[in-house]
Amino acid sequence: MLFFLDIDGVMVPAKSWKSPECLTDGFPAFSSKAIATLQHSLAEEDTIILTTSHKANFSIEEWKSIFKNRGIHIEKLKSLPENINNLSRKDEIVNWLQVNSIGEVFVIIDDDKSLNDLPVHLKENLVLTSPYIGLTEEHLKLIKSISLKGFHPV
Predict the structure, then answer these.
(1) What CATH code would you report for 2-149?
(2) What tens digit of pLDDT does each residue of 39-94 get?
(3) How far is CA 22 from the centre of its chain?
(4) Which residues of 68-80 are buried (b: 16+ CB within 10 A; e: fewer)?
(5) Are 80 and 112 within 8 A, CB to CB?
(6) Which of 6, 73, 119, 120 could form a disulfide with 10 if both were Cys (CB 3.0 to 4.6 A apart)?
């Protein structure tokens, strides 16, 4: 399965009244609920594609280290291209999907409301989080239901 993953508002709840705690690598700590939910959602063969606005700030190896420092081991990690044209998150993802043919089920985990305007066939793969709360166990059932959509027993 392919995971399009945002960070702010998903892994790091966005609380404007409080600065997030940063770990020794200088990046904010992930919420324990988001960590647990992502760990329960991921299988070893899954790929994460970072959609976060921070995606170009770190190399893939640095991102792997950031995740590892927060208790999440990710072997297959990619990133959307740097957003030099200031596209909406919706347009970034739609453009990427148009250029890259994928033969697997995917889920989009994000708090960006522009994703409500995704075409219906893409929006059915969206898990929209509350930016103040982030990814929680309540999202797990939706992620699992999306993951099963492409499964057809032989």
Answers:
(1) 3.40.50
(2) 999 999 999 999 999 999 999 999 999 999 999 999 999 999 998 899 999 999 99
(3) 20
(4) eebebebeebebb
(5) no
(6) 6
